[in-house]
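User: I want to check something. If I give you two sequences, will you return the structure for each one separately, not as a complex?

Assistant: Yes, each is folded on its own. Here is the first sequence with its structure:
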Amino acid sequence: MDFGDTIEGHRRVIPITGGADWNLTRRDGGSSVEADYYLRTDDGVVIRNHNQGVRGNEAASAAPDAPETFFMYTIPTFKAPASSRYDWMNRAVFIGTLQGRKGQTGAVLIRVFKLV
């Protein structure tokens, strides 16, 4: 859903599997993302992920038909059931990256790294 130009910049909401991505291309050429979605683990546990990211305007010249040039840093947070084996995710700090997948329009690769 494209909201067009707003006071903040160009705003879009992109549906993703299990949630939505609120995307903003800022007036300074940078961009930010705020995604909220749910993951289901192999053993059936549902975990909420809220992922915020930003990239500077140095990437503004990336060609839209070259998704592999899209890259940003993210700060994911997880909400796992306290009674599950994933409860440790509720108390950990993560950073991540988000980038386009080469040869796959509309697909991204998300990497998450635990800091603490």
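And separately, the second sequence with its own structure:
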Amino acid sequence: MSNNGTAKRLEPGDRRDQIVRIAGGIFSSDGYDKASMSGIAKQAGVTRALVYHYFPDKAALFEAVLRAEADALLAATRLDATLPPLENIRRAISAYLIHFSPASDKAPNLHAQADAQPAMTGRIRGANHAILAQRVTRALSVEGDALTHAAIVAWLEFVTALARETSATPDIDREAVVDLSVATLRAIVPAAAALLHQAPLPGR
């Protein structure tokens, strides 16, 4: 049953996904503190009780939204084993930057809400970065020792911060951001330097 009696009947999994998708837009536009379960239910065309059926509170719903965004980022940055390491890494970084750009709709604003739930967002980001660090380690064929892993995770934090800082600055060339990210990775993971050797780009 919906608030207006006209909501399309969906399978439970599809309904949950719909609520998460709509909640993502509301959290992004209104912020965590101003967003309400009632407002999310109204926009989804369902009862408030149904939203609480899937999510016990607003924090749980916000976590589901962030996890959906994290999954989307992992999908967008998946590496292609058939590509050379440098091309693979550059494509992944570019996808990372696009994810945090204004064109990606809600992702930048959602991550701006991190202060509302710092422990939660830190946990989700940490899990994502652990997966991404493993991918980078494999792509570069470097030893997966603790120090190398920590260095790559630190590099991912740098790329994340760089993506956020440059996302709203249209006069910064995205390729220049990718170049800087690759150069930084080469510097902190010396074993990857040869694989990531890059000739100067035309015109630079």
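Because they were folded independently, the notes below concern the second chain alone. The CA atoms of residues 75 and 95 lie 10 Å apart. Confidence is low (pLDDT under 50) at residues 1-6, 199-204.
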